[in-house]
Amino acid sequence: MCGFIYSNFGEESIFKDISSSLVHRGPDSKKFYSNNNLNHNLSFYRLSIIDPSEKGNQPFIDDELITVSNCEIYNFKDIKQDLIDNGVKFISNSFAEVIHHGYKIYGNDIFKKMECMFEIFIYDIKKNIIIFCRDHVGIKPLYFYHRGDKLAVCSEFLTLYKLIDKNNFSNLSDKYLLNFIYTPFNSTNKTIQESIFKAEPGCFYIYDINKKKILNTRYWNLSFNKKNDKLSLDDKLDYFDELFNNAIQKHLISDVRIGSMLSGGVDSSLIAALSSKYTNNLNTYTIDIENSLSKDDLRSIESLKQLGITNTYISINYKEIMDNIDKSIKIFDDLSSSDGGFISNYFLLNKIKEFDPNLKVMLMGDGADEVFFGYNWFKILKVKQIPKFLKKRIHYYAYNRVVNFKSFLKNSDYSNNLDLKHDNFYDQMRSYEISKQLPNHYLPKVDRSTMYNSIEGRVPFLDKNVIEFACSLQNEDLIKDNITKYFLRKYSEKYLPLDISYKEKKGFGLSSKILMSQDIDKVRDIIMSEKSFSNKFFSKKYKNKLLSNNLKNQNNMFALNQEVILWRIFLADLWYSNLSND
Predict the structure, then answer these.
(1) Are 363 and 381 in contact (CB under 8 A)?
(2) Does the pTM exceed 0.85?
(3) DSSP state of 504
(4) For the chain, what are the domain ranges?
(5) Rounded distance, CA 442 to CA 342, Å?
């Protein structure tokens, strides 16, 4: 995986300096391209995974194209062979060169052919257009700025922000900040800087250099229309077995060392179990935040040793995290999400990198709950007596954690995304989880926590073929006998002990209340500062009340509500303070 930034404006020296903030995404090599006549500037930072030789360095440049890509193409061998059959000669074994030549042969259809995670930038010299594109479900981030004849595209928001708006804080959106406080993630393609946008998953964008206009086209759609209603459950399990084993094998393609996260739950355990079939001495890693692992967790993890797995427990304590939170606040990047998992994952992977500096790839179980219906609150969908409008409100609280029905009524982004367009409410929920929650909430956590440690995070459950198969499952495959994620649990029986297959889902993450209590004076100093970003919306009296309540030993919905709001205010103000001082 890698990082890049492009712009057609600004001074070359300033551009080079700003682009260096992407070095964590690609510390193995860097390359700069500039065309002074056209004012094109392009910087690329490489994390070498496949073909680490210099031949795989980017950009790839010839008389027709200039391309860079942050990608892992899991079906690259098939595409490459087809290109060779079409007369293409390769100089490397890298994924990126497949995209370079693939665009020449297939045009924009190359995006449909790829089974991968990616962000891609192409300058088509002959057509005088620029194309940029993001993978089907948004595993990798991509941001762009377009105003008049100015265009910039980048792997990370903060780097792009420094390029276009470093000292002009007036363009930070007040509405976005309020949404950040009252909702856990931003479900639109807008960002906190009003001129910077997120590229939509499953879309490619074409910028016509002559016309100065951008058009976007969707190349992949999430569809629930093809239901497997003629196959028996056993037939579906057999079909999925071949499909998922194939996905695991593709996700293990690497010329560098691979590890896997292991919590002891069914998702990460299944990935570890199947991976151990195809690779020797798989190293897995388990986070333990102040001895929070239960005996049941430990027993589950230890039972997997029979598969030849070597597991390492990584211990983290709250004081250590709070003492270093200033250093990690950048991983929140565009403030898309307030998930504390950004921080816990970052520190976990940081310690793993210290333990094994040569580790460059990490398999992760993210996406299984959204794709296969794993959250416990999904069980309410089986209760036919609950009307849909009430189910929507229960879902709103389940993902939001803030009891504020006024914000629910005002949150048009949420309402528009749950417009009952599917007759099947199960499909409607999964559509929202996959197309909105994943790319804007959970996948940014995967990307930032891994890439800030120069590690590539891979998510086999979000393989395109896996998602499309899961969308064909019927309601009774998803929840049965009050068991969520039933199909995946049933499938896992083939590879895991039953107590892991049917282990109750356990939330993973750190307690914001405990974390802030480690240094409540620091929290107070940040949110009470005269320069605090949140002063526009919250009085010091209200913020003092939040601080006071956080110190109380209360365990009710009101206390949780206050804790979540305090945490989000603290994150926003710390982020703003870091941005102002950078």
Answers:
(1) no
(2) yes
(3) P
(4) 2-218, 233-501, 512-581
(5) 9
